[in-house]
Write a structure and sequence with these properties.
The chain has 331 residues and is an alpha/beta fold. It contains 14 helices and 10 strands.
């Protein structure tokens, strides 16, 4: 992994005490998801594989961890202003859920391309949902609303949110103390940045691997450039990986802690989505299934002496969407 090439930046800490405090704070509000060995995957990959079933979290993704950590640390005045988020799906649902749980009002800016199921879910949690043409327009509108008083909850540029996602890493080390490798998918990088920070603080020899899909590769492009890169468009069907860019915070943490970020095509992600459904009896979104695609590419880095944890980060998918994905990639 290349050394950090960013100029010195003043980033708040996402360190072990902060992450441990986040874990205690959010414990009453989130599920401690199971981590279980999987024989079929172990045989397929020639290593010892366990799955972290984060898709069982309320809203079907890991995102409530960061949302609750952020909302629980707000002042009463910040809460009263109303909670604002921009999201292509999972973050918006999580903020809407956390706000409802804490008796707060949420406004979620989603995109016209957002899956109808995600829009409906956010509204079902009681949020006001506005649909904007593009992520760039949505973030611009969010800046206007924040200036007008809303409290903005960024999906991955906020260290408080990242510390909430990092609690996943603590659970992995507790339930799989012999872990040697972890694979996590990347959108804006909040989850992998937090998990890597937590794991490396306690067990530095663990290798953390990232994966993106072609057309939603903001982190890969940022790593190559040594700075945050703005994608002109998201073309991958893995919409929940569709952050228009990484952030200085997540890029810096990935540069520091992540072994490598792999890039896989949509077709591989959908094929492995079907493999997981057939062989592991779990239906996940392409943003989660691409972790298996990455594991296949890493076979020569693994082996019978290694212990791999694959994070199944989400399951925001309907059967209609699955059928559309198969048609789109020709499966």
């Amino acid at each position: 992994m290349p050394a950090t090439t960013l100029a010195a930046i003043d980033l708040p800490a996402v360190d072990l005490p902060t992450i441990q405090a986040a874990a205690a704070r959010i414990a009453p509000h989130v599920l401690r998801t199971p981590l279980l060995p999987n024989r079929a995957l172990s045989e397929l990959l020639g290593t010892n594989v366990a799955l972290k079933y984060e898709l069982f979290q309320e809203t079907a993704s890991f995102k409530p961890r960061g949302a609750f950590n952020k909302l629980l640390t707000l002042t009463p005045e910040q809460r009263e202003r109303g909670i604002l988020a921009v999201s292509g799906g999972n973050h918006g649902k999580a903020v809407a859920f956390a706000a409802r749980s804490l008796g707060l009002q949420a406004r979620i800016l989603m995109f016209e391309s957002t899956a109808p199921s995600a829009v409906a879910a956010a509204r079902a949690y009681g949020a006001q949902v506005d649909l904007l043409p593009t992520p760039a327009i949505a973030f611009a509108r969010a800046a206007e609303l924040e200036a007008g008083g809303y409290t903005f909850v960024h999906p991955f540029a906020d260290p408080v949110v990242v510390a909430g996602q990092a609690t996943l890493g603590l659970e992995i080390l507790t339930d799989a103390p012999h872990v040697t490798d972890i694979i996590a998918s990347i959108g804006g990088g909040g989850m992998i940045a937090g998990v890597a920070a937590a794991v490396k603080a306690l067990k530095p020899d663990v290798r953390v691997w990232g994966v993106e899909t072609v057309g939603a590769d903001a982190m890969s492009q940022a790593l190559a450039a040594g700075k945050v890169v703005q994608l002109p468009a998201i073309t991958s069907l893995a919409a929940t990986l569709g952050a228009p860019s990484a952030s200085p915070l997540t890029l810096e943490l990935v540069q520091r802690y992540v072994e490598r970020v792999l890039l896989v095509p949509d077709k591989d992600a959908v094929a492995d989505l079907l493999w997981l459904l057939d062989h592991a009896s779990v239906l996940v979104e392409p943003a989660a299934a691409c972790t298996l695609s990455a594991a296949r590419l890493l076979r020569d880095q693994l082996g019978p002496e290694r212990n791999l944890v694959i994070i199944l980060c989400g399951a925001s998918i309907t059967l209609a969407e699955l059928a559309a994905f198969r048609t789109r990639v020709g499966l």
